[in-house]
Amino acid sequence: MIGFGNFYRHIADGPLSHWLEVLPAQLAAWQKESLHGKFKDWFNAVDRLPEMTPYRLDLLRSVTAEAESPLGEGQKTGIETMLRVLMPWRKGPFDLYGIHINTEWRSDWKWERVLPHISSLEGRTVLDVGCGSGYHLWRMIGAGAHFAVGIDPMQLFLCQFEAVRKLLGNDQRAHLLPLGIEQLPELAAFDTVFSMGVLYHRRSPLDHLFQLKNQLVNGGELVLETLVVSGDEHQVLVPGDRYAQMRNVYFIPSAKALVKWLEKCGFCDVRIADECPTTLEEQRRTDWMTSESLAEFLDPKDQSKTREGYPAPIRAVLIARKP
Questions:
Q1: In angstroms, rounded to a whole number, what is the distance separating the alpha carbons of residues 213 and 266?
Q2: In a 3-state reduction of DSSP, which class is residue 267?
Q3: Residue 124 annotated as binding?
Q4: Can you tell me which residues bind carboxy-S-adenosyl-L-methionine (predicted)?
């Protein structure tokens, strides 16, 4: 079973220590009651991976681990076989000892759009809400973060993260917990909080923004990346049953409306840092994610629209500060 003892020990004497009042019971309940039907297969794949210590590790420009000399074909094939048990891989890419995990999303492109606009992560404690496989956690460490915590309730993502961690030398600077933001108490302990690709899945987006604010120290920074639509501060799209084939998409505001939402929730120094359409090069099917992707979600006759007739995905990055 994947354990969380190292995480508990790490936070026991710091500003996150009060989290221990509720966290162990939450994770114990998760382990007893909430395991996915495929979790045993995923866990066994992680368990069978060798624990590797990279000769060269690059988390600044990518997530790349290299050995001093190339792996033998048998060892390389064995590692790749276990990693493929953990498909689909959505956030990445990862380059691990000559194995290139070509993920659905070019999450490195998103990171390159985000990083120039945020405060330095040097020495910071950061939280990534809805972190997926944890790709951005490693990039946050590469950018100087002291400690990076990701939360995501999807158990496959936890196993993907633990697999990568094992191949990065059991690095303890980043941790992923199988939780949703609504399970977090008001920690008020993170210097930077990231919410990327989450807001439009929340039935009550303003509640989500308040939850994010409650995790920040005073003066801390929120980095919000989400779907938006074109328009003024009053423009909000409320899709029907699906948006770009995704269920559970509730509200897609304009970036200008999102500024107003953040200000309404008490954030200050709110700014739109970036806004751009999602391209077929950034989100696509690969041999590590073989089901439908963005190309199948758009109108085949007009790629400026989704299959449902809504505007095609545009994503924005907003930066805000907790007073």
A1: 8
A2: coil
A3: no
A4: 91, 105, 110, 130, 181-182, 196, 200, 315
Per the annotation, does 56 bind a ligand? no
Q: CA 256 to CA 275: how far, in whole Å?
A: 11
Q: Is 130 annotated to bind ligand? A: yes
Distance CA 162, CA 157 (A): 9
Q: At 255, is the secondary structure helix, strand, or coil? A: helix
308 annotated ligand-binding residue? no
Written as one letter, the residue type at 133 is: S
Please give the model's pTM, rounded to 2 decimal places.
0.97
Residue 110 annotated as lining a ligand binding site: yes
What DSSP letter does each residue of 11-68 carry, written as one string?
HTTSTTGGGGGTHHHHHHHHHHH---TTHHHHHHHHHHS-----SEEE-SSS-EEE-S
Q: Where are the domains of the chain?
A: 4-322
Q: What is the pLDDT along the chain (323 residues), one digit of tens a residue?
A: 788 999 999 999 999 999 999 999 999 999 888 688 899 999 999 999 999 999 999 999 999 999 999 999 999 999 999 999 999 999 999 999 999 999 999 999 999 999 999 999 999 999 999 999 999 999 999 999 999 999 999 999 999 999 999 999 999 999 999 999 999 999 999 999 999 999 999 999 999 999 999 999 999 999 999 999 999 999 999 999 999 999 999 999 999 999 999 999 999 999 999 999 999 999 999 999 999 999 999 999 999 999 999 999 999 999 999 99
- Residue 42 marked in a binding site: no
19 is in an annotated binding site: no
